[in-house]
User: Fold this.
Amino acid sequence: MPMQLSFAEARRHRGLRVAILPDGARVEERLLQLSRERTVVAGKMACTLAELERELVREARRAGACPPPASPWLLQLALREAAREHSHGPWHAIRNQPGYERALGDLLAALTEGLIHPAELLSLDVPERVRAAGRTLEAAREALRRAGAADPHLALRLAVEQLEARGVLPGFLAGAAELTFDGILDWTPLRLRLVAALAARVPVRVRLPWSPGRPELTEALEPALRALEKLGDPAPELDLYDPAAGAPRLSPFLGRLFALDGDTLVRVPLDGDTLLRVPIYLLSCPSPAAQAREVARRCAALLAEGAAPESIAVAARSLAGGVAEELGDALDRAGVPWRERRGRPALPAPPVRLALSLLSLLEQDFPREPLIELLCSRLLWLAEEGEVLPPHAVLRWLRETHVRDDVTGGGYAAGLSALVERLRQKGRETAAVEEAARRVSRVIAALRALPGRATVREHATALLELLSRWGLWRRLRAPEPQDAGASLERAAASALGRDQAAARALEEACAGLSRAAALLGNARVTREAFGQVLSEALAGASLSPGGARGGAVQVLELRELPGRAFEHVLIAGLVDGQLPARAEADPLLSDDERRAVNRAARRAVFRVPAQEGEAALLPPRQAQEPLLFHLALCSARSSVALLWPRADSQGRELLRSPFADEAARAAGTVPVALPLLPIPAAADCAGAAELLARAALDAFAEPAWRITAPA
Assistant:
């Protein structure tokens, strides 16, 4: 029988149901799913958690309840100033260390997420080291107040307080029928307070993955579940769902994973042919390079069988430390299109390293090898009109002087002059050495002309002008050769795009630091200090994502997989210490000091391992590792491949992850050990280059030195 609705209920049912998701990739996937279910997707149906927080802060600013959030550069400079001028007592000895201000920023974020102001630490019964850190952080906040800004976490807390005071909701939430938090696994006290404030204004649902009877998968969520259940009315509605329900083909395997009381499993060794007919692959590779080649080979095989590129995901616990580059290179060699949504870090890019090397050369008195690297850089044009000496010739003459730097033995000028005299005595031509001496002298003079002590803006302007005078921007806009072959042209275009993005990041960092320094009073700093500040700013910068923009294999980190759906998932790097990741030690406060803050505040502020009889709201990050692994496997629909190297790139033995052992137990299989082959077998070659190398090996290698029979 139809139910009669009131006008208020009817309006509520007509409103949008907005999903709050962890990142943009999951928002795109949700919108794509909605577009398949209905003809038109009207209104804002999904957004990221970060976008929701930005909109709340924006509304609070309009109401005058919140200053603008500080930019990363302003926050960095404020923390740096506080670290150097207000770190007394136990922190005085390390106040100038570059990592100290970064650790202070992490501590400030953790305190604000735990709903405690740094000034409150001074009145709590906590160790003196904690109080001293609180005074330093309060000085940083005071510097931001003078600049008319607030750190981003404080801005969010003020926005939540404004929301609790019946402040204006963002436009896309004002008429929403329901707000659903889906895929959010990290529930800090500030985030719980945000949900409670929203639930008082809009119906809120919180969806959590739940696997009853498996403590390893529920340990990370139980404290948040208890806290959500204790919220007063109107409280958010809890929706506990089985994450394995979306992968029926893998559900028997997923149901046994991390189960305490499973059935007796039969261990069936799988050969290569059988392996291709089952959805769970466990592969032990001889090295990280072999692991990347196997990932690329399997992706190429799936594409050849008709799988869509975007239905394949390649994941690792972390893509840092060269993992993304190694996987990307292997996929490129196999001709597999791929995309990485997370941009590469800017700091290792050649233009950024070049700019920072100019400042370090001055401080180190121009050591020979770094100076040679500068003189031979492909990004600069240091020769003037009429000079014809190529960079490698300058390198040769500099090394023949046997001068180590520009201070020892009279420096490069004296060394090159002595070399000219020796050549004249032998009756040899000296024009090349004289040209090299002029170029070296000109470069050193230009670098010495950089200001020794100035404002950040003056330092940044001088550095960028020098790079412009040496032709960096012209080099980055130069066309690449068109007759080098498709593979080389593609690699050259990729490198050029990376360098152009790095140059933009360098300019943005210089401009951002200049604006931030002006807000803080434009203090004059030394050239060395400017180099440290610029390096720290660029360490947090990312370049634009690489890879194909259309249909492509997705290369991502493990935390990006939960809540998404792929036909085939390949997880690499199941090595003990990487997956599960090791617990990160707090660089400033010990576990006992953080536990003391929790006891004094009478609530969970920091993540610390729970002692016997304790129940913490914030479990340690380690508790999330089994859950992340399980949710990543739940994103697969047809097959899963788990890979790990037996040794690192230097041949040192690695221990496989306990998650690999657990997967083998749940699947009832034993891992397949791939043989150590510098060149893949003919049947396993993923591209023409590997096949050509294998053919050359089979044709020309001495039989006595072979470990496999020719194909």
